Amino acid sequence: MMLxxxxxxxxxxxxxxxxxxxxxxxxxxHDFVRGMADGTLPKASxxxxxxxxxxxxxxxxxxxxxxxxxxxSLQEMKHSAATVNGLIHVxxxxxxxxxxxxxxxEEELFNAEEEAANLAYTRFVLDAGQSGDFLDLLxxxxxxxxxxxxxxxxxxxTQADNTPYQExxxxxxxxxxxxxxxxxxxxxEHAVANRLGxxxxxxxxxxxxxxxxxxxxxxxxxxxxxxxxxx
Length: 231
Known about the structure:
Blueprint (H helix, E strand, L loop, with lengths): L10 H9 L1 H8 L2 H8 L4 H28 L3 H28 L4 H5 L5 H16 L2 H25 L7 H8 L1 H21 L10 H24 L2
Helix pairs in contact: 2-11, 3-8, 4-5, 4-7, 4-8, 4-11, 5-10, 7-8, 7-11, 8-9, 8-10, 8-11
């Protein structure tokens, strides 16, 4: 079966994904992801991941809010603000709803202790934005957004009929999140055109952007591993 490999209207994203092909494959084809597809992922691992991902989304929202500060165009500002809104009003409520069914309250989610893998990832992204410009921040942010979009499509194409993780799969394969990914790809093209020009791979900045993307992708795989192990 040919699995989805969306480019989200971004040749830059395709180039970054290719430059980090091993890291990307480790991320989108992790055992945690496979376990959601076939239903073998232990519920305890999934709930542990959800709690930590709720904490992650709080900091991820802060990073996208930093995108408003770092923006140099109205398009960048509008997209960053819209993403913060989506994270707070779409993704976080999904976590709250699923965890509530398992007896985990929103207050417990908000006060959950942040684990090392979570801390490493969120602070890496924030540092990329604080020390760099909007493009540095965006390249650190997009492995999460576009990666979840690609994973959602892959799982929708391969999931078992009885997987208990259908709700998660439907969210990230769904039109609303896929539209957000499409906007993210278009925003990346806009940011690259404004800062690097058409021949972006010849830019002196390109190797560092590739390293940032690869590191963020490694940290995403580490996040799955944290969930899988429960610590």
